[in-house]
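Structure tokens please, single chain.
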Amino acid sequence: MPPSKSDQPSAEDRQRIIELIGQELDQFDCDAISNPGRVTIRRLNRAEYDNTIRDLMGVDFHPADDFPLDEVGYGFDNIGDVLSLSPILMEKYLNAAESVVTNALLAELPPWPPYHQHQAEKFKADQDDIVRAEGSVMGFYREGNAFKKLLIEQTGEYKISVRAHGQQAGPDHAKLELAFGDGDKYVIDVDAFADRPKVYAIQTTLSKGTVNLKLSYLNNYNVQDHPIAELNGDRNLFVDYVEIKGPINVQPPSLPVTHSRVIPGQPEPGDEVAYAREILRPFVKRAYRRPATEEELDRLTGLVEYAMLQKATFEKSMQVAIQAVLTSPHFLFRWELDPIDKQGDDTRALNDFELASGFLIFCGAVCLMTSCSILLKQGYCVMMMS
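Here you go.
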């Protein structure tokens, strides 16, 4: 005030006005008001809802654009007595909460390091009569090779895992060689049997681009007339899949800021509920404009636990809990409720959190009510009595 297009007061005039208001307030006898009354529970209007969601979740859109227009009283749209909550608005709150968490939080983190599993049946054998796919397994019945071209998206260290087993015979186990183009070769001693296949892993450096992976069976064995009975038999090799994971020496990409500000990390398996409680506590304090009670945290972490029992990811389960917070009356309304055991007309001091929320409203009122000294003084005394 005054409007930006009107003549503006000088800095000296502004300072003088501040001093005059302060002197007037200092002279007012707050003890003359024995009962300041009570404040109607006040819903966030559309502008306040958008601003609160922005500051709380970090989203850059306006979910309240879809809300019904706020009721107006005495020319203002933030008066508790006229800010009702209609069924259609409640439905809009539910939809907005779902939209906000969907935009702000990931429902599932991408696996890191990234991995690709290649079924052995997708490999191409050089001799189909001795190396051939049988269902999802590649069988090597004599020494031979199977090939597959791999696309490596980034140069780095990779972990190569092979699930395999052997039809064991003779003095040695079946031996599998992995070769990457004209580069490194690795020989794996496959000591597993068909009833208990194993995963064998190596680590190697791969360059960006296309690389030809070759699987080779090195030591075929087929003896049926050896004088030592234990050395008779037919050795064969079977491969289920090859998994390429990596690069393992590269930091994972950063998560969206809106996600990491609410869910800053990843819990260890089995610690999801405890971690959810840890990160919900400060979030609820900001959303409710006061500390969360243990009972409230119990209910919210109960939602996380239930969602995870339904096979939801930790992140999706947190979305459910955050939606519950954003549709809670403690988020949608500003509360200054008297305790249940309050007697008669006894006054009480507002707590620090009620005072902080109310002071913002009061500061706005000071700017709008400079011409109404009685209301201004009474508002000031309500704050001072706190």
